[in-house]
């Protein structure tokens, strides 16, 4: 006889709105998914009363691994497939700097991961603090490289090395030693190690992949982040030279990062859903008022923004009840699941 296929409720993918998610403190904490995150993703993927699927991207200030590797990890944690085409981390926009600088110091992250990321971005000559310590152990009087660090590091002729720029890609694992090397370079003449500028105005630029002073990790209280390293590096530079340090941070809340995200989202919607018009509204879900809410609000108000970016603050990360956030979100909810429900309901 004839087989009737089971009735499957029809889901359509909406082209009128989209979501963008922060990761730490919203979806993940201390390497584990926040329980509501898995459910929230299922709701976006069609398990909802409206029979609709909603496109989404991820926008984190974190990093330290290739986008590919971060996506694999996040896919496993959230039990769904996430592609680098929908993922931006703090250092992703640094890619564009590879055309401008050849020999660079790359700081931060686990082992050799950040060197690999930088080389993947097209940086031609990547030097790490390990390379400098291996080449001259007097650089850091109290630090001896482990066997693994020694084997990974590349010996260089430091007297002939010109560092054209310093990039802090991820959280430093050795603040003191990394800062010693950063200060050596900042106070040099054109990044030539062993030189000292007379007026301290000849050093190469320094870039941080983001400026989060604190972030939400496994500990019950927030942990110091890259923004704290930036502030202390600026204070050290000032103490050593008597001059302020001009440094640059990427990531949220920078407008450029949200512009980058808009382009990525546009490409993603086009490639995976064949959509050619931009969404009317993008719901951004974050836990850090200073990065996520500030960035979303300022981008929304800027002339670069052609649609509506709507900020939603959750209570699972940096922001906690009882304090007033320094930047006011359009909505405050408990978890990412509530944020998804809030946005979807607003669209109905
Ligand atoms: O180091 C990462 C942290 O500062 C922020 O990550 O995902 O909350 O932007 P995220
Ligand atoms: Mg966060």
Describe the structure.
- The protein has 2 domains: 12-50 and 76-81 and 254-347, Rossmann fold, CATH 3.40.50; 92-249, 3-Layer(aba) Sandwich (Rossmann fold), CATH 3.40.50.
- The mean pLDDT is 96.
- Strand 15, helix 9 (289-301) and strand 16 (308-314) form a beta-alpha-beta unit.
- It has 348 residues and is of the alpha/beta class.
- It is elongated and about 80 Å long.
- Helix 1 packs parallel to helix 10 and helix 6 crosses helix 7 (226-241).
- It has helices at 35-44, 67-78, 113-120, 129-135, 147-152, 175-186, 226-241, 255-273, 289-301, 336-347; strands at 12-13, 17-21, 28-29, 32-33, 52-53, 56-59, 87-88, 103-107, 125-127, 165-168, 206-208, 214-215, 223-224, 248-249, 281-286, 308-314, 331-333.
- The chain contains 10 helices and 17 strands.
- The chain starts with 11 loop residues before the first strand and ends with a helix.
- SN-glycerol-3-phosphate binds at residues 22-25, 60-62, 171, 212, 215, 225, 288.
């Amino acid at each position: 006889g004839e087989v009737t296929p089971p009735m499957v409720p029809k889901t359509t993918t909406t082209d009128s709105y989209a979501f963008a998610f922060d990761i730490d403190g919203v979806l993940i904490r201390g390497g584990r998914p926040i329980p509501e995150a898995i459910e929230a993703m299922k709701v976006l993927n069609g398990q909802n009363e409206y029979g609709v699927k909603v496109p989404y991207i991820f926008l984190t200030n974190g990093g330290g691994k290739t986008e590919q590797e971060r996506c694999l990890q996040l896919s496993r944690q959230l039990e769904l497939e996430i592609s680098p085409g929908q993922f931006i981390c703090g250092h992703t926009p640094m890619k564009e700097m590879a055309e401008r600088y050849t020999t660079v110091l790359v700081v931060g992250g686990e082992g050799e991961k950040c060197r690999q990321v930088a080389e993947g971005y097209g940086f031609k000559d990547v030097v790490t603090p390990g390379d400098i310590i291996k080449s001259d152990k007097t650089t850091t009087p109290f630090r001896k490289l482990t066997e693994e660090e020694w084997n990974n590091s590349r010996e260089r002729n430091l007297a002939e090395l010109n560092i054209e720029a310093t990039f802090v890609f991820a959280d430093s694992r050795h603040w003191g030693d990394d800062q010693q090397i950063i200060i050596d370079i900042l106070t040099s003449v054109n990044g030539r190690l062993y030189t000292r500028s007379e007026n301290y105005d000849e050093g190469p630029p320094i870039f941080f992949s983001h400026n989060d002073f604190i972030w939400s990790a496994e500990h019950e209280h927030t942990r110091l982040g890259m923004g704290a390293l930036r502030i202390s590096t600026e204070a050290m530079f000032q103490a050593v030279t008597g001059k302020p340090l001009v440094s640059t941070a990427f990531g949220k809340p920078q407008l450029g990062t949200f512009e980058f995200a808009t382009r990525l989202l546009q490409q993603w919607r086009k490639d995976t859903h064949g959509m050619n018009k931009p969404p009317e509204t993008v719901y951004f879900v974050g836990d850090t008022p200073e990065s996520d809410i500030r960035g979303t609000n300022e981008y929304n108000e800027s002339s670069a923004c052609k649609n509506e970016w709507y900020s939603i603050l959750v209570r699972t990360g940096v922001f906690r009840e009882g304090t007033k956030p320094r930047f006011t979100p359009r909505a405050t909810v408990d978890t990412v699941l509530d944020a998804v429900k809030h946005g979807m309901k607003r669209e109905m």
